[in-house]
Amino acid sequence: MILALLLAIVIGGALLAWPLGRAHPRVSRSVALIAVCLDLALMLFVTARDFASGSAASGWREQLNCSWMPQFGIRFHLGLDGLSLVLVLLTLLLGVVAVLISWRDITTAVGFYYFNLLLILAGILGVLLSLDLFLFYFSWELMLVPMYFLISVWGGERRVYAAIKFFLFTQLSGLLMLISILALYFAHYGATGVYTFEYQALIGTPLSAHAALWIMLGFLAAFTVKLPMFPFHTWLPDACAEASTATNLVLGSLMAATAAYAIIRFLLPLFPDASREAAPVIIVLAVIGILYSAILAFSQTNLMRLIAYASIGHLGFVLLGIFSGSALALRGAVMTIIAHGISIGALFLVAGALEKRTHSREIGAMGGLWDTAPRLSGAGLFFALAALGLPGLGDFIGEFLILIGTFRTHMIAAIIASCGVLAATFYALRFVQAAFQGPNPHKWRFSDMTPREGLVLGVMMALLLWLGLNPQPVFQALAQAASNAPGLWR
Amino acid sequence: MNSTQVLSLLPLIIVAGASVVALLAIAIRRNHALVFALTLAGLLASFISAFFAPRGPATQLLSMDQYAMFFMGLLTAASFFVAIFAYGYLAHRKSRKEEFYVLLLVATLGSMVLAASSHFASLFLGLEILSASLYGLIAYLRENPLPLEAGIKYLILAGSSSAFLAFGIALVYADLGTLDFAGVARMVAGQHGASLDLLIPGAVLILAGIGFKLALAPFHMWTPDIYEGAPAPVTAFVATVSKGGMFALLLRLFSQSGADRFPHLIVVLSILAIASMVTGNLLALFSNNVKRILAYSSIAHMGYVLVALEASRGLGAKAVAFYLTAYFATILGAFGVVTMLSSGERDCDQLENYCGLFWRRPVLAMVFTAMLLSLAGIPLTAGFIAKFYIVAAGAGTHIWALILILVITSAIGLFYYLRVAATLFRRPAPDGQTTPLPKIAPATSLVLALLTVIVIWLGVFPAPLLRLIQFAIGNVF
Question: What integer pLDDT is reported at residue A70 of this predicted model?
Fold first, then answer.
């Protein structure tokens, strides 16, 4: 029931925020903030309750299963386990951040903006919670249109181009996944005589190796485009260059998290053999992606594009961890998803704060900002260091585990990927040097962090430190999820 | 003919009667509102009677079964909405308005006959009733050159396509000696001296005639011109009632006459489907006229439904019914918006007329966006469940090639739907003069609100409609 409430609050918030925006923009901002905060409180309550009672040692903490379209065997089936719990918490946390940082930035059609933002959050939560493949696809697609509007209405100069490119990439790959879902559905019917989209039931579907590979490719297309994986990544830098800061946060941090989650939750358990077969190819692409994105990030002049390429590099590590076949690396991949969400998200925020002050996203327009805005520059340095994998911060734990785990199964890939960590140092430090240090050629003088920015960035810093120094709660939650897919985690 | 049979014909009798009453009312006294009210009452009564009329084969020609009643309900409902659009559209025009509704009722009657016909004679009758009134409807605003041109085009092309159809029927009759769908099926199954030499050409000619009405490629040439030239409510009618009745007929003909047993015909249908999906979606990319874009998109949509038709052994028939229902609601909504914005000499059909509509009429722009997204098949809208149903039906009968083409072409389709949607949200130039928007017609707004609710309701809770379709169509096929 709690899960339905979770979705109902965001969707209700979206439906309220829009019309109320006509009365006064502030009202719809507040409605959005209250809705997301309520959800966050609800999830924290669930976490604390289970932690205190120690009850949910394994399996699903919360479930909701009711009939939706019985004619097709479609059920409204939601479930929460440790894996989805940590990602739901991440989503809601970044959701609050997104609402807060759009507070001043968005001034036109405010109600419609928050309507879209909350609807995307609902779609993401739906993806993270659904245990019915139809519901999953439904939520997956639900994210698209609002995101299209966020980019195309509140974006920069070439926003329509970027929005359409984003939409076509993700929609086409999503349709391929739809074919795969249906193929699986009918294969299951052929084998058992039952029409169902139920996750648990479909896991055991007997498939010929040939069929399994083709069906798996449909899923893989959708997930790797959304993540994005090299060579399907080109939409992300374009979109990030045009979209507003909060949109980039959702696009770069949260959508990637849903794609990685979907690989772990659906692709690997549904097609264990086919995914093992495809793993070498994915690992090669992931390693290429890590190095390639580092090189491209180094040569970007647009700050948002630089961060987008940095994000693609991190996601290469995530893919490497997921497909390495090592449970240790898989844990590292989940850790990286979370840490990447926070550190890359925070970098987008810093870039957005700089853009607001310098009215530019070009690194060349900045320089020597440390004197005029020391706290903002310090935050930029902190998150750049987090992104390059400084020990003591969350990203390090994730990448370290991925490399250790992969080293045992794919040694060469692990060695080359560790060069990628080195390469990340170059672009991260270049960003810090070019933006904050050296002379101040444009004679910038502006105010330092506002209290709202300070609060948001401070919380994110604290979380990264906490994840870096005490990652155990996350691993505990994952261990609890392990019983839902036993083949995966050990 | 006993009383049950007469009662089962009630939906048809009511619409026919309403057209006569409307005609008499005009003869006595011209009153726009009165004729409009009579039309609505007739359509509503027919809609309600479709639920309660006894089911069964009413005559040799008409089979008033569950299936026919379902489509008649759908057609009368669509016609009801078109009449409301027309009222707002015609209200401030100088030309005589009342006859429009008579033609509308008669055209609806023709389409309903098509949905019920189980015999080639009633097929032809229904088709001609429909076409003859459509000529008048399309050219109704005869003081403007564009509708007049469209009307004459439709007259010539529809006339020749009827000739094809008639010749095809004649060939089938010459071969089999029967015009009854069930009789054809018996002959074909038994092979009683049926030579394929005449039957196959006959079937292909019939298919060409039907393909013209449905605007399947390569018989689609008329669609963009007629859609552009006809008054917006009439275009809505052509897109829904005219095509819907024809498709109901095609589905019945296809499965009752045993046509699905001929692999040749399946190949022909596949080619038509592929050609329609590809042509429709590609041509729409290059148009800057909203009515033409919707015309090209309708070609593609009929191609999608044809894919479902080929899967009619499996889920296909139900998928067709669901798709048509969803498509009706969506396309009526889209043309409703066009109608609402059209007040001048020329309909509001240029893409630039819609530039920045969101900033001036946010609610109307959102309704239009919802309809465009439903046409594109995006979740939360009826179009999504409908497309899902077709893909599911296709996957169930393993027509993977068609499904793959459907998926790829609908991704192309997204591009132009999004182009229109993006135009709505574009910020108008601060110094550019904006065309004044017409006043809002209250009845039309109400219908648009209702259609939006239907489109979203079907996208989220399709179960009731699925149950209704299962009940209505499950027993027939």
Answer: 86
pLDDT, residue A333, reads 94
Whole-angstrom Cα distance, residue A287 to residue A230?
9
**CB–CB of A350/A273 below 8 Å?**
no
pLDDT band for position A444 (cuts 50, 70, 90) = confident
A168 closest CB neighbour out of B359, B378, B414: B414
**Cα distance from N-terminal residue to C-terminal residue, chain B:** 26
Contact predicate A273/A212, CB 8 Å: yes
Rounded-to-integer distance, Cα B41 and Cα B43, Å: 6
The pLDDT score that the predictor gives to residue B477 is: 59
Q: What share of chain A is helix, strand, coil (3-state, %, to 5)?
A: 80, 5, 15
Contact A170, A144 (CB under 8 A): yes
Q: Is A61 helix (H, G, I), strand (E, B) or coil?
A: coil
CA distance A120 to A323: 28
The Cβ-side half-sphere exposure at B476, using a 13 Å CA radius, reads: 33
pLDDT of residue A56: 53
Strand partners for A76: A66
Which residues of chain A does B425 touch, with a Cβ-Cβ cutoff of 8 Å? Answer: 149, 152-153
Are residues A71 and B466, on separate chains, in Cβ contact within 8 Å?
yes
How far are the Cα atoms of A12, A142, A298, B101 from residue A31, in angstroms, in the given order?
10, 21, 40, 48
> What are the DSSP calls for B334-355, one per residue?
HHHHHHHH--SSS-S-BGGGGT
| Number of residues that this document lists for chain B | 477
Half-sphere exposure of B186 (CA within 13 A, CB side): 7
A178 contacts in chain B (CB < 8 Å): 388, 391, 407
Are B295 and B223 spatial neighbours (Cβ–Cβ below 8 Å)?
yes
- For B347-441, where are the alpha helices, taking DSSP H only? 357-360, 362-376, 382-396, 400-425
Would you tell me which residues 19-48 of chain A have a C-beta closer than 8 angstroms to some C-beta of chain B? none
Answer whether A230's CB lies under 8 Å from A288's CB: yes
Query: In chain B, which residues have their Cβ closer than 8 Å to the Cβ of A172?
Result: 407-408, 411
Flag if A69 and B418 touch (Cβ within 8 Å). Answer: no
- Whether residue A243 contacts residue A150, with contact meaning beta carbons closer than 8 Å, is answered with yes
Residues 6+ apart with CB under 8 A from B14: B42, B45, B46, B49
- Is residue A281 classed exposed, middle or buried when 0-12, 13-18 and 19+ CB atoms within 10 A define those classes? exposed
R_g of chain B, CA atoms, integer Å: 21
Q: Which of A158-172, A361-375, A401-415, B407-421: highest mean pLDDT?
A: A401-415
ipTM value greater than 0.90: no
Looking at residue A95, its amino acid is G
For residue B237, what are its two tokens?
């009618």
What's the pLDDT band for B280 if we cut at 50, 70, 90? very high
Query: Helix H segments across B1-65?
Result: 3-8, 10-28, 32-52
Residues B326 and B342: their CA atoms lie apart, in Å, by 24
Residues 259-298 of A with CB under 8 A from B: none
Residue given tokens 């079937």 in the structure block? B203
**pLDDT tens profile B373-408:** 999 988 889 999 999 899 888 888 888 889 989 988
Question: How many C-beta neighbours within 10 Å does residue B471 have?
Answer: 11
Measured between beta carbons, the chain A residues lying within 8 angstroms of B418 are 148, 163-164, 167
Subunit contact A148:B418, Cβ cutoff 8 A: yes
Helix (H, G, I), strand (E, B) or coil at A389: coil
Determine the pLDDT at residue B191.
62
Average per-residue pLDDT in chain A?
90
Do the beta carbons of residue A287 and residue A316 sit within 8 Å? yes
pLDDT at A57 over 60: no
Could you read off the pLDDT of B65-87 as tens digits, one per residue? 889 999 999 999 999 999 999 99
Distance CA(B82)–CA(B43), nearest Å, equals 11
